[in-house]
Write a structure and sequence with these properties.
Layout (H helix, E strand, L loop, with lengths): L7 H29 L1 H4 L13 H7 L4 H4 L14 H8 L10 H9 L19 H5 L5 H5 L16 H8 L26 E5 L12 E4 L6 H8 L8 H4 L2 H12 L4 E3 L2 H11 L17
Antiparallel strand pairs: 1-2, 1-3
Helix pairs in contact: 5-6, 10-12
Length: 292
């Protein structure tokens, strides 16, 4: 009886199986890269806005602080988009006839909000809380990039789950003193730019992150320490910032603290990790994290 298949059929079958496997692998790799690409994540893309607002001009050029516009970033899950009133605080007096700002003036006169395109837009199933991150030592620049150098706002990072988990698995690499949260130019400690930090006892009703004092000036010079610690008053409870006498007393206490010198981000981060009372990834496996 003659053979139905030629002897080469076995070789062709093996080649077909290998080729099919390679196609499946290539397709999987392509889809994986596609979902990480800017085409999906919109990383680096500058969205069209009703008004081409320049953070570089307002932050770096004019010196506006983040909190002036994003008023709820320290006390809410939502950083907040400034209302038209905030824009008009200045633009009722300057650039009053600029065509560029016509949408702002129209919003002010009609009472209709400006419809901005959200740049850092997380999926609806994701809950992100600005308050806890800001008050636990994560700077704006860590997630949003050098906003003070962006003429037009864009997404610096992918904001995908793996990017979030990469930080949560080792938060020490991104922690900084709370006095430097809004410092876009913050640089991690090094041999030529050490940071000194000291822990103070926790106070009732005060976030744990406010119980750490840090300075970039050698603490052995008490006068310099007191001067460098003044910006920390922004993060102190009202009782310590209500009057100059109380504030001066607090600075005096700071000068007597025992400071540790840090010349690497890893050492500083692990120090802050402990004193900020940030739970480790192992602690976060508990069911009560999500189911309260």
């Amino acid at each position: 009886m003659p053979q139905i298949f030629d002897r080469s059929s076995n070789a062709l079958a093996r080649m077909a199986l290998v080729l099919t496997g390679l196609i499946v692998i290539a397709l999987g790799y392509t889809l994986d890269q596609l979902q990480r690409s800017p085409w999906v994540t919109r990383q680096g893309q500058r969205a069209d806005q009703p008004v081409p607002f320049s953070h570089k001009h307002h932050v770096q050029g004019l010196g506006l602080q983040c909190q002036y516009c994003h008023t709820t970033v320290e006390k809410s899950s939502y950083a907040g988009i400034p209302p038209t009133r905030t824009c008009m605080n200045c633009h009722a007096q300057i650039w009053t006839n600029a065509q560029l700002l016509e949408p702002v003036r129209n919003s002010w006169y009609t009472g209709q909000s400006i419809v901005w395109t959200k740049v850092h837009d997380l999926p609806d199933f994701v809950y992100f809380n600005h308050e806890i991150h800001v008050n636990k030592g994560i700077g704006c620049e860590t997630c949003h990039g050098r906003v003070d150098e962006m003429p037009l706002m864009y997404e610096e990072n992918t904001l995908q789950m793996e990017w979030c988990l990469n930080c949560h698995r080792n938060p020490a690499k991104n922690l900084r003193p709370t006095s430097e949260i809004y410092n876009m130019a913050w640089e991690e400690p090094a041999d030529d730019r050490p940071v000194w930090c000291a822990a103070v006892p926790d106070q009732p009703g005060v976030p744990t992150a406010q119980s750490v004092r840090c300075t970039t000036t050698d603490p052995e010079n008490n006068a310099a320490v007191q001067s460098s610690l003044k910006p920390l008053a922004l993060f102190r409870p009202a009782a310590l910032t209500a009057g100059s006498g109380a504030n001066a007393a607090a600075l005096s206490q700071d000068a007597g603290l025992s400071y540790a010198k840090f010349t690497s981000q890893d050492a500083l981060g692990h120090f802050l990790l402990v004193h900020y009372n940030i739970r480790t990834p192992k602690d976060l496996t508990s069911c009560e994290v999500c189911h309260r």
